[in-house]
Amino acid sequence: MGQNKAPEKDYQTIMSITRTEIEHVARLARLTLNDDEQELFATQMSAILNYAESLNELDTDGILPTAHAVPVENAFRPDVAHASIGIDKALHNAPDRVETFFKVPPVIE
Length: 109
Fold this sequence. Notes:
Helix 1 crosses helix 2 (about 35-55). The chain is mainly alpha-helical and about 110 residues long. It has a domain at about 20-55: Histone, subunit A, CATH 1.10.20. It has helices spanning about 20-30, 35-55, 85-90, and strands at about 95-100, 100. It is flat. The protein has a two-stranded antiparallel ribbon. The protein starts with 18 loop residues before the first helix and ends in a 7-residue tail after the last strand.
């Protein structure tokens, strides 16, 4: 029994990323790309963007937007106010202090 498969789309032909855009992204990422790498990444990024664009063809009427595929519960404890540990206890192991503050070396001249 053969299954009917949808023909594979060529995602590289719909949207094209230019070499200038690849150079710009590489510069932002602090990457040095040779000509072959620029061509390779232009092709790959075009394919990725075209695949993502193909998702717009899906009928999503009646489907609620979600942030997660499964329900997620907050795993954190409730935010309850507690008494602080106090200035003396907080500064007990400080290498140096001035009144109620940590004393640190200057960082701006």
